[in-house]
Amino acid sequence: MQDRLATFPREPLATLPTPLEHLPRLSEVAGTELWAKRDDLTGLALGGNKVRKLEFLLGAAKAEGCDTVVTFGALQSNHARQTAAACARSGLHCELVLTRAVPRGGDGPGGTSYDHGGNVLLDHLFGATVTVVENHDDAMTAAIAAVRERVAARGGRARWVPPGGSDAVGTLGYVAAGLELAGQLRALPRDPVAVVVAVSTGGTLAGLLTGLRGGGSDVPVLGVDVYRPAERTGPAVSDLLDGVAELLGTARPAADEVHLDDRYLGPGYGIPTEGMQEALDLAARSEGLLLDPVYSGKAMAALLAWGRSGRFGDDGPVVFLHTGGAPGLFAYPDVVGPPT
User: Fold this and answer.
1) How far apart are CA 222 and CA 16, in angstroms?
2) Burial class of residue 110 (count of CB atoms within 10 Å of its CB; 0-12, 13-18, 19+)
3) How many Cβ atoms are within 10 Å of 9's Cβ, its own excluded?
4) For 331, which of 8, 56, 82, 213 is 20 to 30 Å away at the CA?
């Protein structure tokens, strides 16, 4: 599988491999031995999991002669921030179309910090052209038309990247990550009983599962839905598994290997929950580890609940795949700031 991956164009962006670290104090709280795969330390633009996908996405864009990358996300999208930085490093134009998909900002929760701080501040700093639209189809259609006009007016050519970088090409980044992690797991004193990861658009889970199996690891991968209910996430993951298997010419993991749990999503994407807030506090105060309110915080909330319930027992460690997102903390001062 490694040889096949090497045939795809790839733009070097990430600091790899990322470490696999023991979290002894958080293990006590979780009731199980806990390790973290630190994909928050991928290096570019304060790190995060999307950098791995962008290596393949920008590699493809350059191979196709594109000078622009266009992508989409919510206003505080980690993927958008990392795309803007990747384009800056690679000498490409970046167009971001960001939606007000989360009921925050303005006079509501988060205020101006959500509208102008965190990831969106960095989007502008990296030189991206940022278009913010309301969360409905007409606004998105108009924004896309305007982007097409701008690219055409300067004689450019764009690579259009879906939210989260989750198409088959982007998912190759997490196939590579799964192979990397499989090698690290072999060095642990005991075989792990699970890998836990936040799931939104599905590319990280699909790629990770494919790469782990390609690397000889049969560890279960437990996905925590942070974007949509599992009934909608599951088909997206399945499609990506099919697409990656076709690209690589390999067998895809079985359908019953896709484990999704949406009980920790709460009221919706980007909306805080009590479990997430507790997870942020515990990780920071026990390990100096920064989680984020949207992805890793909710995934850690699930892991803590599972550990306390005895789900994992003492058969081996649990690995938490840390997807990053720390800049988002600054868009949630009402969640992570000092008591008022």
Assistant:
1) 23
2) buried
3) 15
4) 56
The H-or-E segment that residue 177 falls in is: helix 168-185
Task: Give the architecture (CATH level 2) of 2-49+166-336.
Answer: 3-Layer(aba) Sandwich (3.40)
Hey, which residues does 72 pair with through a beta bridge?
Answer: 97
Q: Are 76 and 270 in contact (CB under 8 A)?
A: yes
CA distance 140 to 131: 10
Residue 210, CB half-sphere, CA atoms under 13 Å: how many?
Answer: 32
Which residues are designated catalytic?
77
Reported pTM: 0.96
Domains 2-49+166-336 and 50-165 share a fold: yes
Q: Is 163 in contact with 72 (CB distance < 8 Å)?
A: yes
Q: Is the separation of the CB atoms in 208 and 197 below 8 Å? A: yes
Alpha-carbon distances, residue 59 vs 51, 82, 93, 323 (angstroms): 12, 15, 14, 21
If phi > 0 it is left, if psi is from -120 to 50 it is alpha, else beta; for residue 270 that is left
The structural domains of the chain, with segments of one domain joined by +, span 2-49+166-336, 50-165
Widest distance between CA atoms in the chain: 61
DSSP secondary-structure letter at 48?
-
pLDDT by residue, tens only, the chain of 340 residues: 999 999 999 999 999 999 999 999 999 999 999 999 999 999 999 999 999 999 999 999 999 999 999 999 999 999 999 999 999 999 999 999 999 999 999 888 988 999 999 999 999 999 999 999 999 999 999 999 999 999 999 999 999 999 999 999 999 999 999 999 999 999 999 999 999 999 999 999 999 999 999 999 999 999 999 999 999 999 999 999 999 999 999 999 999 999 999 999 999 999 999 999 999 999 999 999 999 999 999 999 999 999 999 999 888 999 999 999 999 999 999 888 776 5
